[in-house]
Amino acid sequence: MSVMRYALSISRLLLLYLIGSPAVFATEMDxxxxxxxxxxxxxxxxxxxxxxxxxxxxxxxxAMALVGNQNIEIKRVTFGxxxxxxxxxxxxxxxxxxxWGWHLAWVSGASILSYARMDGEAWVSSPIKKLSKQVQLTGxxxxxxxxQQAWIVWQGDETQAGNLYALYSADEGRNWQEVREIAxxxxxxxxxxxxxxxxxxxxxxxxxxxxxxxxxxxxxx
Length: 221
Hints:
The protein is mainly beta.
């Protein structure tokens, strides 16, 4: 069996597994995939998945699907990906965007942070925006969305691993402001940020998660 056919078979097995287990996390699904492929990322509300998929045109691109339905439909997010059977994305994330669909963000192997909106009814994505070049990060990318605001958040690389950085949108991802450092030395020593989530207190959004020394309030700019 060719590498491409093997990857396609693994992807089908993965989706069959997900139909019965919509709330599983990526770490519990890794055994279903070859070592060379990326992890599967789940939205915070556990209603959608984002992963790298081998498509029929012999390309590896990002795909997403909703879970909890008997018939899972794979929606292609990117096109024209590489043909080599390996993981082509350092990290990616998705979050629900109000009632219109989904925020999607990813960092490619070239360290470029890209973003798209996926329409939840027509299932077509917006033109891809390249928001930042040479993003250096540790661990995962996160998208936090509240009302019309959205933040794409990540932990700095090993030289600034305790600091948090973000891009900000005030109009549901249509336009984005430049990268800013939003918290210095926010992550505990020798820790990696994990399971970052949005919380609201007195109308003010803030972040909580494993590895944070304290909650980090979110503001626009």
